[in-house]
Every structure is written in C-alpha cells, then in structure tokens.
Amino acid sequence: xxxxxxxxxxxxxxxxxxxxxxxxxxxxxxxxxxxxxxxxxxxxxxxxxxxxxxxxxxxxxxxxxxxxxxxxxxxxxxxxxxxxxxxxxxxxxxxxxxxxxxxxxxxxxxxxxxxxxxxxxxxxxxxxxxxxxxxxxxxxxxxxxxxxxxxxxxxxxxxxxxxxxxxxxxxxxxxxxxxxxxxxxxxxxxxxxxxxxxxxxxxxxxxxxxxxxxxxxxxxxxxxxxxxxxxxxxxxxxxxxxxxxxxxxxxxxxxxxxxxxxxxxxxxxxxxxxxxxxxxxxxxxxxxxxxxxxxxxxxxxxxxxxxxxxxxxxxxxxxxxxxxxxxxxxxxxxxxxxxxxxxxxxxxxxxxxxxxxxxxxxxxxxxxxxxxxxxxxxxxxxxxxxxxxxxxxxxxxxxxxxxxxxxxxxxxxxxxxxxxxxxxxxxxxxxxxxxxxxxxxxxxxxxxxxxxxxxxxxxxxxxxxxxxxxxxxxxxxxxxxxxxxxxxxxxxxxxxxxxxxxxxxxxxxxxxxxxxxxxxxxxxxxxxxxxxxxxxxxxxxxxxxxxxxxxxxxxxx
Amino acid sequence: xxxxxxxxxxxxxxxxxxxxxxxxxxxxxxxxxxxxxxxxxxxxxxxxxxxxxxxxxxxxxxxxxxxxxxxxxxxxxxxxxxxxxxxxxxxxxxxxxxxxxxxxxxxxxxxxxxxxxxxxxxxxxxxxxxxxxxxxxxxxxxxxxxxxxxxxxxxxxxxxxxxxxxxxxxxxxxxxxxxxxxxxxxxxxxxxxxxxxxxxxxxxxxxxxxxxxxxxxxxxxxxxxxxxxxxxxxxxxxxxxxxxxxxxxxxxxxxxxxxxxxxxxxxxxxxxxx
Lengths: 557, 274
Description:
CATH architecture of chain A: 8 Propeller
Number of strands of chain A: 37
CATH class of chain A: Mainly Beta
Strand order of the largest sheet of chain B: 7-6-5-4-8
Structural class of chain A: mainly beta
Largest sheet of chain B: 5 strands, antiparallel
Oligomer: heterodimer
Shape of chain B: elongated
Order of helices and strands of chain B: HEEEHHHHHHHHEEEEEHH
CATH topology of chain A: Methanol Dehydrogenase, Chain A
Helix content of chain A: under 10%
Structural class of chain B: alpha+beta
Distance between the termini of chain B: 50 Å
Largest sheet of chain A: 5 strands, mixed
Number of helices of chain A: 2
Number of domains of chain B: 3
Strand order of the largest sheet of chain A: 1-31-32-33-34
Number of strands of chain B: 8
CATH superfamily of chain A: Quinoprotein alcohol dehydrogenase-like superfamily
Distance between the termini of chain A: 36 Å
CATH topology of the largest domain in chain B: Cytochrome Bc1 Complex, Chain D, domain 2
C-alpha cells in the first residue's frame, strides 16, 4: 500500500505550548491537534487533524455540545447588562450593511477561545460552551461584503481585514483595537476578505477587486503594521517578468490576479505558495491580448517569505475567460510519486482541473480533469500540462453553453487531504450556464461586465476523492438532490479515520474517508457555510461547523 | 477576482445609469461602491467640449480608449482617485509616455475632470438589448424532428414559444424548463413535477409528487394531499425518482451551441406560423 507511505508534512511535534495567551512559532508549526491557530489549522492546507478521540468506533455517539447564533451589527443601544459581553466598535463609516450574517471563514481555536468572523465583525467565544466573551464591530464605508475568511493570531494580537480595506489588529484577550491600517484604495473598488496568515513576524494579506485593478499580496510587521513587502500578481512596469504575456503594460497593470484565498507555507524552503486570481477584464478578454497567457494570473505561485520574490510559478488556467480564478487552497503533501519521495503541492482549480506540482522547483507532475462536465477546454492538454481554452466557449451573442457556471467546479470552500488514505478530497459542483456576449465593442467592458450569464442548472454536486499520484477520481459521492445547488461547503479529515462535510441539503455528515460511506449525520436546517474544524479543550475533542449565522459544536460525552 | 456565485445571485441591479453600466445594490439598500454625486451640468458641458478638442482622439468619446491608442480612462487609477482635476493636471500639462503636453488652465482641467467623473464606474454591465436569435430556423426544425419530437408536438412547442416573448427567456426555458436563469423570480412556465415511488422492505409502496430528497430522507405528497417522509437508510427501502427533465439534463452534454441557436430560431419562427 504505497499510499500508506505518505507522511505528515510537518514532522515531529514541537514542544507543547501551554502559556496562556501566547501563540508561538511552535504552535503554528505543530501538526494540527488541540488548537486551530491559522486558517487551514496548520500551514500545510491539508485540514487533517491528528485528534482521534472522536473516531470511527464511537462516531455514532457524537452529539451536540452547544450551538450559538452570531449576532452582528452595531452594539445594542440599551446599556450593557451585568455579565453581558462588551461590544467594541471601530471605524468611521456610516454605511449600513443589511445582508444576512454568514460565517464563511475559518474559526481560530487558541487557548480555549474561539475567534469567529463575518464582514465587519469578530466574535470571541469560550470554546467549552460557545458563550460570548467580547465582540468587535467595524463601522464600514462600504465595499463588497461577500464574506470574511477568518482571523490570524500572533502572540496576543488578532488580525482581520474589512471590505473597506483595513487591516485591523485587536488585543486577543479584550477585543480592544491596537491599530488599523489602510490596505488599498476604496475609490479603486478594492475589498478584502482573506484570513491574514501569520508566519514568524510576517502578517500576509491578499487583495480582492472586480474593477480591473492589480492583485497583490502585502506583508506587514505584526507589532506596528509597517509594510515589509508587496508582491504584485501582474507586471507593473517595463521590464517586469511576464510583461510579454500581455497586450500592453496598461493591460497588465489592470490585469487582476488577486490572491484572495490564504496560501500554504513550507518552512523548509521558506516558500509561501498561493493560488492567484483570474485576469481582468474577466470575460471580454481581447484587451488582454487574444490567447496571451496573462501571467501571473490563475497560477500557483511560490514567494520567498523573507524577500518577497517569486521563486517559481505554474499557471493552471492560461488566459482565463470565465472569472474562474485559481486562488483555491494549495495543499502541501510529502509522498511517493513515480517510485520516489516528492515534496508536492496539489490543488483542485475552479476551472475543473486537478494539478500536482513539485513544490520546491515548480516542476509540473500531474494534470487531470475532476469535473466530468467541464467543456471549455480542448480534450488534449498542452505540452506544459495545461488545459487549452476553446475560444468559442468564452461566450456568444446567441449564448454559449458552458460548464461550469461562474461558481466553478470548485471554489474557496477548503479541500482536505488525509495522510491515512493518501486521498485528496474536494467539494465538486457540476453546473451549466449560458454565457451571452453583451459588449461586442472590442475594447471590452470593465471587470465582470460585458456578458450576461444565465444559469441552466446543476447536474450534480459531489464529494470527490482524488489520488494525487494519478489525478484520477478514486470515488465520488453524488449528493442526492433535485435542487439547483450552489457551492458545496468545505471539508475536514481527522486521524479518527473520519471525513466531515456538509452536504447540499442541510445535513452535516461524517464519512468513511476510504469509500465515502456515511457513518453519522445530523440535519442542521441550513447548509454548512464554512469548513468543519476540530479542537480539544480540557481533554475533550469538539467538531465545530457553521451554518449561516449559527455555530454547532459536537462532542462525545 | 471573485468568488462570488452568492453575490451574483444576491446582487440586484438597481440604479440604471446607462444601457451599459449599473450600480450594484445588495439587500438592505447597501451600495458597495456609491457613484459620485452628479456634477455641475454646465461644467460637464464645458469639460465635454474641451475633452472633444484635446483628448478624444486617443481616449475615445466615451473615455474607454480611442483610435489613437490611449488607455481606457474609466478605469484609470488617476481618474478614480482625482477629485477636481488636481491629480490630472500634472499629467495633462507635463505629458506621460507617448502623451503630449497640453496647455490648459486649472479651470479647464477642472471642467475636464467634471466630465470624466460623470461616467459611471462599475464592474458589472446592465441589461442588453442585443437580439440573441442568431440561428437557422430550418436547421432547428430538423434538429427538433430528430431529438425533441419524441416527447413534444409542434403544437405544444408553438404554445410554449408564444407564451415566452423574450427570446433569451425562451431559450433558457427550453434548455432547462422551470429554470428562469438565476435572475430571481418564478419561472414563467413551471417545470412538470418530479414523482417518486418509495417501496418499503415489506413491499408496500407509496407514490406521489417529490417534495424533497437527500441522502437520508425522501418526502412526497400523495394524490390525496397527505404528506409522507421516509428515512432511507434502513435496509430494503427502495426509492425510484422519475424526473421528466432527465432527457433535458442529459442533452446538455450533447448540444453544440449552433444546435441551441437553431432550435431557438425555429421556436421563434413557430409563433408566426399558422
């Protein structure tokens, strides 16, 4: 069983950290266990926890420990009752966001405290029973309130970003604001959603924008918020690498590529590996140069954490034309490939293709199609292993029938990799849409404009298990439904030989990771909206998931 | 970038600035990026004249780029960050790259700025009036005879096409009946119901209209209106779902875009046939 030779990326456990209120380098470098101190739990992006108190033999007895509804928005006008948790406010905006509260990010679990986020809001909860310790509310100027992917933590400092482009640092114990810093221009319609990633004394934040502005990763000093370096996803001046893959410098400067999903980090090579966003304008691509690759958009990119310089890249979607970014979580695994050990990065891209790349050199290893319905590319890959776009499937005046719809075959909902099975698990959705060209002017439209995308429907939502060595889907569980489903939420695997997932019908389910057999399930009444996580506090393991504005924690009593 | 299937569904298009561009407004009246306040009409008019005389060849009458190869100014960071010409003035007076110098006063540059700021800025497009009927009705008729006539009579297709005057809606609704295309609102013609037969281990069967199904339960409405739900994990339970749209779903893998355009052209032509 060669798959059993797969080892956990980060080897022997470092010294156990118990000091109250301190998140040390050791904690962030440990295999994922009691705590959940960063976006993916650890730096590898595997979302595989070594906790096994809850396992296949006792999962049938797992039950609800607590549930809490997250209340967002301005603090109540009534005076605070004795014992009521404080709401700390910041920000100078006066715009009211009336949308529903949705927890779509990772929840940090550190020293018995959970840190939960939604746009403009951070909640600190007791990990034992979910009771509120404090809440921070940011008064917004506006910006795209699509979601917030979580907080980052460094010692006693919490970091999160806002839709109106601020990086905010809070005292993790009290929620008191330490400082806030503007990340990008509101006038240029930037917004920020990413969970800041803390690596040693670096706080990493990627940008978001729909208006043809360049994407970048900014890195800050955690004590003061001073900018350490900034990496642009597209060429910004004459002589920059990749400029020959754009029609003009102006096109490259407006080329997008936003790395809006947290990347992974390899301490051995000191490489931060991220997926970059789609090129812009997203659909009317002629101004970018017909058929030109538009580097370094839609690519896996490795940047040295100390220098901010790109070490390698591999483009997973050259000249994307459907707003299918490749920002999806890159997962770092050490395993056997063609008979010898390899350090790899694997990803399932929004365009429907799976990729494995050598994460030290950037050498391409595997490409496979994990979405059967994807019809936008030629049957044959090119010499670099990249899918080759069919231009007729961009759009048509009379409509082009394309799979996938804009949401893609996969998206930000986190995948998971279990070293126990050697399988990579990906939430997969197969959809079709008609893409109508509405801006025939060759100068194109701005941003996401120039097309009218009309849904034709979902033909299948799946939990896919992929063998990284071949890229083949070993099994996939089709969720039984007759509904047109949206995104399928994220995943978790544990050493208890369990795979946790929310399905598309409001069920939260534990599967056997070897074959997708459901072992336990409960009906939450709403689809899970983030990826499940697990933590241990006072000797008891909990499984935690959000469905909309409500958290559910399960345990075995 | 954009993750945003949720946003694309949730965002409703509210303020129409022109046929081409819209502001986006989310539930609760929230506007992510408000447009600038309308400027002084007289200044805009003066600015338009100055722009036409000095800028239009390179940047285009709509400021999206012109024959002279100048960049699209509606997405220019300089223009987006500018308030009253203060950011534009140095570039206009000193030139940049292949752009020559222009001798214009502060007041004239302020007027040009007012004109440029009158263009709405949005990453989304508004509704389109382009005719999407581009197919060949004759070829569409032949395709329908081979593929669709198994289930649909010409008379029924004519009735269907007549009920849906908007060709885009017609095309969406024949591709996937009951799905109006994800733009909100109910389908103008509902899809036929999905039916289900549940057979228990005892052999007893229940048949009705499918209300809901997932991996663990199935719910149906029986002919007498009563509602039944069954847990489907128990051994021996059999669930047979009959979805009348199954052929439509299977055909999605087989159509060429030309087939789709031709069928729509044929359906449109049926409306005027006697």
